[in-house]
């Protein structure tokens, strides 16, 4: 199982200039992947900007959005944005997608929360067309460079529609920030949907957990603040933050036993030394 680390782009009032430095240190210390958390209505750095900064600051580490709120974007714009980041990185991006749930994240006129599932299905076709170099909006000109690849995609969420979308249209599944016991049920649902869709092989399975090592109290408070509007899920997210080596190593073993392909550990502060602290424990 690969071990990745998140970028601190979702930390409240993050010092934005830390992001490329964080990315370089993560690559130097040997993490497999850099991830970004997506949300608009929060005082943070946009996930696409964080990924672009990481792409320019590194050369080998994989990149993933976990997850980007796809339906808050016009499909053509997101397709070009993702292709651009993937191109800058040299083909290292995986686009982890979700449909979003918080109403305040939907700020683009005509792209509100109503009908977002159907819009997501339509946008998937748009992404593929854009990445294939097809003209858009009745024009004659492609909007991405020749040679642009089909960016790999993963989907989150555990609804029947989300599982269907994952199985029919992507490379795998991202479980939300939850304990391994709950993620196991989500992974089983993803595998079942994959099989029901007639897909060969296995879906790529990615797990997410938070950590706070240097200043656990601050980290717990930050996670609580980020999920403040999510009801009971806030308590689940805070309770799942790993604050010591024993908890981290136990989580790694549990997710590995579940058959996860990757566990990405998300920072809850923007303290750059957290990268080294985590690496010393898990790598």
UniProtKB/TrEMBL annotation:
Top-level taxon of the source organism: Bacteria
InterPro entries, per database record: Luciferase-like_dom, Luciferase-like_sf, SsuD_RutA_monooxygenase
Domain Luciferase-like per the UniProt entry, residue ranges: 17-239
Alphabetized UniProt keyword annotations: Flavoprotein, FMN, Monooxygenase, Oxidoreductase
Pfam families: Bac_luciferase
Protein name: Luciferase
Organism: Actinoplanes couchii
